[in-house]
Structures are given as structure tokens and as C-alpha cells.
Amino acid sequence: MANVLVIGATSAMAEAAIRLWAERGDALFLIGRNAQKLQSIADDCRVRGASQVTTAAADLNDFAQHPQLMQSAFDALGSVDVALIAHGTLGDQQQSQASYAAAMNDINSNALSAISLLTDLSNRLEAQGSGTIAVITSVAGDRGRQSNYVYGSAKAMVSVFLAGLRNRLFKRGVHVLTIKPGFVDTPMTAHLKKGPLWASAATVGAGIVNAVDKKRNTVYLPGFWWLIMQVIRHIPECVFKRLSL
Amino acid sequence: MPAFCSWGNYPATAQHGVLLANRHSALPVDQGSLLPFGNGRSYGDVCLNPGGAVVGSRQLNRFMAFDESSGVLRCEAGILLADILHCFVPKGWFLPVTPGTKYVSVGGAIANDVHGKNHHAVGTFGCFVEGFELLRTDGSRQYCSLQQNEALYRASIGGMGLTGFITWADIRLRRVSGSTMNEETIRFSRLDDFFSVSADSASHEYTVAWVDCAASGESLGRGLFMRANHADTENIAVKAKQRSLSVPVMPPVSLVNNWSLRAFNALYYRAPRQNRVSRQVHYDPYFYPLDSIANWNRMYGPKGFLQYQCAIPTDAGKEAIRAILKRIANSGTGSFLAVLKVFGDIASPGLVSFPMPGVTLALDFPNHGEKTQMLFKRLDEIVDAAGGRFYSAKDAHVSAQQFQAAYPAWEQLEALRDPGIMSGFWARVSGKAGD
Questions:
Q1: Residues of A with CB below 8 A from B73's CB?
Q2: Which ipTM was obtained for this model?
Q3: Which residues fall within 8 angstroms of residue B18, CB to CB, at 6 or more apart?
Q4: Distances (CA, A) of A181 to A14, A198, A224, A226
Q5: Contact A113, A62 (CB under 8 A)
Q6: CA-CA distance, B117 to B100, in Å (whole number)?
Q7: What is the distance between the alpha carbons of residues A144 and A142, in angstroms, rounded to a whole number?
Q8: Do A47 and B63 touch (CB under 8 A)?
Q9: Of A43, A187, A190, Cβ closest to residue B62
Q10: A59 — contact with chain B (CB < 8 Å)?
Q11: Which of A37, A43, A47, A193 to mutate to test the interface with B (most CBs of B within 10 A)?
Q12: Closest-CA residue in chain A for B20?
């Protein structure tokens, strides 16, 4: 049994992972924006077998609230074995190109908000001397593409931040996991056309739980995205800039 | 947008649909007539609405509460029976009734009032539905049970989704000691023996028989009788196999034909080494042999398949089944899996529920167009003369006249139908096609 904190618990990928932790009898602290949805997820977790479920509804773009939120999670759980940060928005590339305000919003919710939480969280786990921090970034952060480079650069920022954090906390007994999902069929992507590269939230959720168990450093979910991103990262820039990706 | 098809891929309607986001969501208002859609495991047009849209319950997949003392589980309607088994068998609970696939939603199981191998002992799924919330297209939500809104409760059990959208339900689970089943397989060489073994099986909660629908003459109605009980103690050595097989793509023509059918059936009939074999099996292969082959419905090719499932009252049962099997054997078509079972006399609370005291036969036919329709017509004559009826969840051929004669309560269901809801099946059998 573990104590698990999930930030962005109402995201489809996070919920899929939460269900598996609940079935193991873990104690959960769930943070999300929509109180009604959080309540539904908490009830579901209790039936599945979670030993304890606490919820907190919060707007994660309100960074000032972050320390208080983390404090309440540690108060409820005592100690934290696993912290999953899963919140984010897909953003709108067209809008972000047209207006810095839109781009800033996108970077706020996908990068700075995570970094604010991670700063607080990493210090608490460092003091605790144990635990795993798992953060959902994206394959979009591996290389900038015209179709989503604002979202991608926000995710890239988190990925680099995590690499540094992993390096720092390794010596303190705290593990850091970077999760890079590919295309996932969730309400956030409901409007997009699906193809064979798309995975279900349940598949990705199971991959998250497995990667946490195995203390992996960086995982692509599903795994075949590692190969795709190797290819994409190695296309020479003089060729890449001519592509419509 | 997910595809909305029926399991038989027939009729092949290009079905438009939307998913309900969660159980608090309102039904869409700008889509014309609606029809609730679960996991698409019913075979014909009962889950299709060619004149409008379907509203999928797939995202309503959360448990809500569980009462350890009574075994009543409150869950959203899109939860699959597979999800319930996954979570509750380890806690010592089992579905009170399960059909031959675990990939049906709770909402679909109620709307089709599904039955299982224990029908003779406990009745239908509907007998274990304590109540549910019904969301109507006028936006109203009401809890329906025997105590509250009883008419809508009875109309919705087996009501094919016509009375409204079931958002969540209370269903009563049963205790088991584990996942192990004690199973006995008995080979019977003719139809009469099926009935005698069946009559002799009151000691078993679950009974079902596979019949060789290609056998004729002396061997007509031969098959394997499978009866089982939940084991008193868990045998951890008995495990479920992980799903490993799949029909990955749709073959251009049906793989089920006269030759493959005869060869398979002859081998399957002889598979047990003795005429009577006892063994312990995991509940998964016992209840859901076909679930281990993903997308098995593709086997029938792009034209799809039709299932013929009828129930015949006890008195006329033996002779009618004999006549039906004779006609099927002569037709040279049929399926690997043909199922025969004696129903019990426990009444369902449902208004338009399929099972009746008697015997039921179910088998699949590859869709050969006119030829299949002709065979069905000839089988229908036998069923109608015997006072039998058809299972709407499997049906794609019954006429309005046949349906209305077999289910006199259909008019009560029509009166309670949500005026904003319609299905391909109901348009056909209520005589509203073309409305």
C-alpha cells in the first residue's frame, strides 16, 4: 500500500492510473478543477478498494494556492510515496501564434504551473528522503514543429526541468519519472481525427503505473513512440524545416 | 468519433452518434431522435437508430458505491460486466446473471434483460436490478424501482433503451468463494438425451449445451451438455488464460462455410475423451469462451451475420426444436457455436422480456442475403406455430406482426416510450418504419 498524490486527477490518463492504484488499496489525495468530477472519481476509487481518498478542488493556474495545496496533501497522507502531476491543456497553436497572451496562458498552465508545484513538492520529498515524482509531459516536447510548438516548448521546459531535478534528487533517495505520451484518445483530444497511432487512456494509465513501479527515468507511452521520436529527432534541421509536421 | 455498429455488422447502417460526457450531462438536443448505446454487443438493429443518433454510455464507467452487507452495487450504466468481475471476484462477489460475453454494459444488460446459464435457477439479469436512474429526453431524471415509478421500471427492463437513458443502476451481486468452477461435460448423441440430461441437472446452477447443428438423421441434435457450480473453495492452480487470439482484419468472405462447419463440429463433438468429463475451470473460459478471440464477429466477413435465437414453450419445445434443427441441418449453413438451454419459470420484472418457461436455441448464420432470409422464414413458421418468440437483442428479421403477436405487452412499452427515442428495431416491429 502506498500514499499517492495526484495533481490533475480528472485527466483521463491520470484517472486510468488512479483506478489501478485504488485497486491495490493505496491511499489517495486527488486534486483537480472540477469538484463534481473529483467526487465521482473518489467514489469510484473507494469501491475499487482505495484505503483512503481525499479530494481538493483547485484552479492550478492560481500558483499562490500551491503551497497550501501541497501542505493539505501531506497533512492528509502523512508521507507521499508517489506524486503524479498530470494537469494540462492542449492549447490552440493558431491562437498562440496570433497573440502572446494566448501563448502565455498555454505556457502558464502546461509549464509554469507544473514547475511551481514541483518546486514545493521536490523540497518536501527531499526532506522526506523518499518517494517518486512522476510528471506527464509529451512527445511534442522532443522537437518543435509548426503545428504545436507553443505547447511543445512548454512540455520541453518541463522535461528539461525534470532531468535536472532527477539529477539533483537521485542522491536524496527521491526518484523522478518523465512520462511522454503520444496521441491519447481522451476528452481533451475528442475533436481530433483518430488513426492507428492513437492509444486509449487505459493503456497509458497502465503504462504510468508500471513505469512508477519500475522506477523508470523517461518513458514513452505506448513504447513505440520512442522509436518514432528517435527518427523525428534525427532528421537534419535543413530537411526538417521544409516538412509540414 | 467512435464507430457505432451492431455486433453482427448487419444491418450495416452508417450510424451517427455522440458520447455522453458523464452521468450529470444533459442529452443532446439537436440530433433528431436518440437511442441509448452501450457497448454494441447486441446483434441486429436494436442498438441502431438509422433515423437519428445514438448516445453512447461508454464514458459513464465509474463505480459509485457498494454495500457489503446487501451486495448491492451502484454503478454507472457504461460499466462493463468485465469491469465488475475484475474488481469484485477478488472480493468474493460475482454477477448474479451473466450472458455469454462479459463485454456488455450494465445499461445494455438491463435494456435487453439478458439471461445466462443459470436462468432456470435464478431468472434474468432484471431480477437483480434494484433500481436505476432514468434520464428522459425532456431532461427529467427519476429513480425507477418496484417502489418508485414502477411502470417505468418494468418497461425499462428489457425495454431496449426506448424508455430513456439509464445513467446508473443498483444491482445485487452474489457471494462466491473464488474464481473456480466445478464443471461437468456430458456428451449426448441425440436431442432426446439433451432433454433428459437437462431434467436431471437440478443439482447444477449453470447448464447449457452446445449442439452440432450440422448433424442429421440418427445424430440430429447431438452435442455436449455443460453444467457447473461455483466451487466451494478457490483452487488457485486453475487460472484464466490471457486473451491471445484475435481476428485482426475482416476477411473478404466469411470463413464460416459448409465445409469448415462440418469439420469443426465433428471434431468438437469428439473432443472430450469420455462421455462424461469432470474438471475445475476458471469462470472466464467457462462463461466467456468466445471473449478469448477478440473481434470474432469479423470471421463472418464484410456482409456480417445474423443470429437466430428463439424460445419455445415447454410443451411444444422438444418437437419444435427437432423440426428447426432438421431444417438447419438440411440448409447446410449454421455456426460453430449453437446453443441449447432449458429456461426456468422465474418471471422477470420486465414488461417485454424474452425468456419464457421452455427451451431456447441460438445460433449464428453468415449473411447470404435472400438465402438466409428464406431459411429464417421457414424457421419462423415452426416457432410461430409452437407459440415461441424471438430475442430482440439478437434479431434483425422479425416482422411487426410476429413481434406483436409474441409480445402482447408491446403496446404498454410503446405507451411509456420516450417520444424522443427510437430504434431501427422498434421502427420495424411497432410498424413505425417510414414515420
A1: 47
A2: 0.92
A3: B28, B31, B53, B54, B55, B56
A4: 12, 10, 10, 10
A5: no
A6: 8
A7: 7
A8: yes
A9: A43
A10: no
A11: A47
A12: A187
- SS (HEC) of A148-212: CHHHHHHHHHHHHHHHHHHHHHHCCCCEEEEEEECCEECHHHCCCCCCCCCEEHHHHHHHHHHHH
Q: Å from B431 to nearest chain A CA? A: 37
**Among B403, B348, B387, which Cα is nearest to B114's?**
B348
What type of residue sits at position B304?
G
pLDDT tens across the length of chain B (435 residues): 457 888 888 887 778 899 999 999 999 998 899 999 999 999 999 999 998 999 999 999 999 999 999 999 999 999 999 999 999 999 999 999 999 999 999 999 999 999 999 999 999 999 999 999 999 999 999 999 999 999 999 999 999 999 999 999 999 999 999 999 999 999 999 999 999 999 999 999 999 999 999 898 999 999 999 999 999 988 888 888 766 678 878 888 788 787 888 888 888 888 888 889 999 999 999 999 888 888 888 888 888 888 999 999 999 999 999 999 999 988 877 777 789 999 999 999 999 999 999 999 998 888 888 999 999 999 999 999 999 999 999 999 999 999 999 999 999 999 999 999 999 999 999 987 644
DSSP sequence for B52-66 = SEEEE-TT---EEEE
Contact A47 B23 (CB under 8 A): no
Q: What is the pTM of this model?
A: 0.93
Q: Per the CB < 8 Å rule, is A40 touching B23?
A: yes
Which residue bears the cell 438423421?
B217
Partner residue facing A44 (CB), from B21, B24, B63: B63
Strand positions, DSSP E, B33-88: 34-37, 53-56, 63-67, 72-76
